[in-house]
Amino acid sequence: MSTNDEDAEADSSGHCSTPDSDGEVAEEIAIVSFERKMETAEAIREGIEDRYEAIEILEYHGDVFDEHWGEYDCFVGLMASGIAMRKTAHLLDDKWDDPAIVVVDEELTWAIPITGGHHGANQVAGDLASLGAIPAMTTASEVADKQGVEARAKAMDAHVVNGDSTVQTNLAVLDDELGPVARLDGPKAVLVGDDVTVLKRNGADGCVIGTGSVSGASADSFLAAWWTALERTEYDLDDVEFVATATRKEDETGLLEAARELDLGVVVFDKETLLANEGPTPSRSKELIGWPGVSEAAAIAGGRERELVLEKIGYENEVTVAIGR
To answer: Region Disordered: what ranges (predicted)?
Structure first.
């Protein structure tokens, strides 16, 4: 094999499986476990394997990280954090290329991202919460309970093209100065600065579920409403890019639970964005609180074509849905 071929193979073996991606999403995971903890390792794999392309279990030995570095998006170390840190410190090179590392104890009490929080570790730690582990996230946006640009990319089924820019844009997130993701369709040539994060779509164009609700609407109501709406269109669940709603609904428990059940990201839009994309159906909320109807405006704002496929429908006086593209 030539040197160029070897370089190409080395590049392709890196953890970023999406072209041009800076690896904000983990898809292939290795659980590294001591032999005596294999039962717990199997429980972890069984508990989250439906959310990832591949999960393998590697038995721990002194060189296990050296031997498999670059083969996986994320290592889950079923071990003390000190062991994982000492055994990987010499391998760390670049935050955009290094695999993520999460450590978890045998009792599944804590899931601690050590490296690559915004590049898969927070994602995996969050999924381990379904097994009872508490995600101990220390990245600034998560600590502040705000959606960083990497999280926004994941929610929109996109990836970050220019990773270095996220230093500035995530600082803007912390200061509440970033605003919603601007959508630009081409063909166009765009000149951006170092403080502009560029997101690129992962898949083909689909549809966006715009949704609103009364406070406290159940996950079952959201799911039933979304399915009802999709059945009135030519789209299916596989065509849904994400769920869109208003910032004032971003903590709605039922909405978030429903989105997780369908493995969909949630994108929120502020009042100004929704007003600029107001739908055709009159809404009392504009008269009462100054917000336009959330479902139609969110579906329009999130869609590539900025158009509605299905105007607002209601479900059980709890949830409203519109479909955009």
So the answer is: 1-24
Say which residue, 5 or 39, is predicted with more confidence: 39
What is the spatial distance between Cα 255 and Cα 243, in angstroms, rounded to a whole number? 9
Summarised one tens digit per residue, pLDDT across range 256-304 is: 899 988 888 888 888 888 999 999 988 776 655 668 889 999 999 988 8
- Residue ranges and CATH numbers for the domains of the chain are 3-138 (3.40.50.11220), 149-201 (no CATH), 207-324 (3.30.420.180)
Rounded Cα–Cα distance for residues 123 and 279 (Å): 34
